[in-house]
Amino acid sequence: MHANGRDTTGHLEIAFKFHPRGFKPEFVAISVPVTTQVGLIDIPGGASDVQIDSTAVLQQNTKLIVFEPHMHAAGVRFCLQAIYGTVTETINCAGYDHNWVLAYTYADDAAPLLPKGTILRVAGHYNNTRANRNVPDPRNWSGGGHRSVDNMNNMLGQGIALTDEQFAAAVADRRKQARLTGRNVVIGCPTCAFANAAQQSTSTTR
Question: Which residues, 6 or more positions from 155, have their beta carbon under 8 angstroms from its beta carbon?
């Protein structure tokens, strides 16, 4: 909620769902962040198309389940690429409006299956002109920071960690799904073309 200069009543509902006592999860939930240091964000006044890139390397096999761009007032578009070996794939691009920050949840059969060692690259696009109604004074230079008039360039991803065995099984299922649908290319699964996904994942990171 934003300050609006008048008394405002809000209504919040929260629900909790608990697993049965003694439940042991099959998978481990993890955060999948790709962040830009605030000191590296440089958006000149009046600039209409500034691109800021950042990268991170996955330390474990990951099924990405949520793609969430996080920018601030000047942000207008955000893209995610996965780089693995000689394969570079654009996984997602989404428009951005800081009035309503969105998180995108993948369908289970489309969630990217990314082996450890994958480089995640994000590209944030910024418009610091009068065409962007979220910018209060586009004459001003903008750097990184926590205020809405400052900027961020982060992906707040969520995923699950997969063992080599779990990863190989997930890739095998995705390859089978691709054959059934007649697809030759499986976006978001760079090892789907390999015969042994777990072996490829292990050997690449040694």
Answer: 32, 33, 34, 35, 67, 68, 69, 70, 78, 80, 120, 122
Q: Quote the CA–CA distance of 143 and 163 in Å, as a whole number.
A: 39
Q: Average pLDDT of the chain?
A: 91
Quick: pLDDT tens for 104-163: 999 999 999 999 999 999 999 999 999 999 999 999 999 999 988 899 999 999 999 999
Residues 37-69 have pLDDT tens digits of 999 999 999 999 999 999 999 999 999 999 999
* Structural domain span for residue 141: 28-162
Residue 69 contacts residue 33 (beta carbons within 8 Å): no
* Residue 86 resides in a domain: yes
Do 118 and 186 lie in one domain? The reply is no
Q: Are 80 and 67 in contact (CB under 8 A)?
A: yes
Instruction: Please count the residues of the chain.
Output: 206
Give residue for tokens 């050997």.
Answer: 203
**CATH number, residue 59:** 2.60.120.230
With tokens 């006044």, the residue in question is 45
